[in-house]
Amino acid sequence: MITVNIQKKLKAYNGVQLLHLQKAFVPGSITRITGPSGAGKTTFLKMIAGLIKPDSGIIKAYEVWFDADKKINLPPQQRKTGFVFQDYALFPNMTVKQHLEYATDDAAWIERLLAIGGLDTFTAHKPEYLSGGQQQRLAILRALAIKPRLLLMDEPFSALDIKMKGGLLTDLQKLFKELQATVIIVSHNPQELDGIADDELVIGSEV
Amino acid sequence: MDLTPIWLTLKLAAITTLILLALGLPLAYRLSKKRSFFKIVIEAIITMPLVLPPSVLGFYLLLAFSPQRGLGKWLSEVFNVQFVFSFQGLVLASVIYSMPFMISPVKSAFQQLPLSLSQASYTLGKSQWQTLRYVLLPNIKPSLLTAAVLTFAHTLGEFGVVLMIGGNIPGVTRVASIAVYDSVEQQDYPSANYYSLILFAITFVMVMGVFIYNKYQVKTPLA
Q: What are the TM regions of this chain, as residue ranges (chain B) (predicted)?
């Protein structure tokens, strides 16, 4: 079980706002996170990944990753969560293939990911010569390259058209099963993950 | 015509640039991260040579490294190194004097990279060093080149600091800018013109080179 119980003060336009989140994620499940803009969805994912430090609380994913009282705070390198950034965070200096090679040495796995993402004919392209949808797929593939047990995705399908998304999601679901990955997806679009997500967490009040 | 001052100048600029690359990269990287009061103080000190008259800097360096007292005495007694009126003194002064030209472009280049680039690298299990080497540095290459060239060119043009700490010893501390001044003082205008023209040509070509590189970098979709 992956359990999170953390607090973090967020600076918002209307002063300081306290983010308190408590949630248990069933291993192998897909959880959708929704909530209004600025509610702290991205901050939540980054706190789990170890990129932002919560003020207090505990994060446990198979082992203790963060415990404010015991002063435990594993760096992101040791947590090795797959992370899909909202801005993709692709490396401008690397080609599609180099992105995946930077993450893993497993050549067969790289080939498979490229095929799933439909990027096998673009391996030598750098991000600036990819379309928005291709860039987003590369960001997803890179996060999967490390075979993460916990995958955190921040609006990962926003740039994909419906047809592309459908096919990709089916393939991704298979991969998630295979990796036995627990997946947490931040999504604006309420229908996007219908029939796919097992659970939901709403952050912030929806008014 | 004596070419020694030109060679000496080029040697000084090259050594200074190399030292500043080695010293400035990690420092600029550190400074580009979260700000603290301590970092602001360090930054202010590094920036001082930009606004301070070079003769002031030279004067203090001269005092600090004078073999008659304190630090300079200790250095000369223990390590037998002398920074006053010597080539290594010129190198030290140039490193301090040109430091802002290396640090500030590199620092702002680091700061302009989105934070998520390093974060993405960390989640892939890569260390800070690997991230710097494979993700950050390759993406600030143009700024790195600009910084190196500016540092080199700025060192070529040094005068006040060099005169204060190095003096005008032929073959040792008599760099081109000093040779120009010295020639003019002796009303030897042809020599002054000769050194000036060479300095002018070198710096012009270098600055043009950087502009061309940064503006017309060949871009192709395939790496």
A: 6-28, 40-63, 83-103, 143-165, 194-213
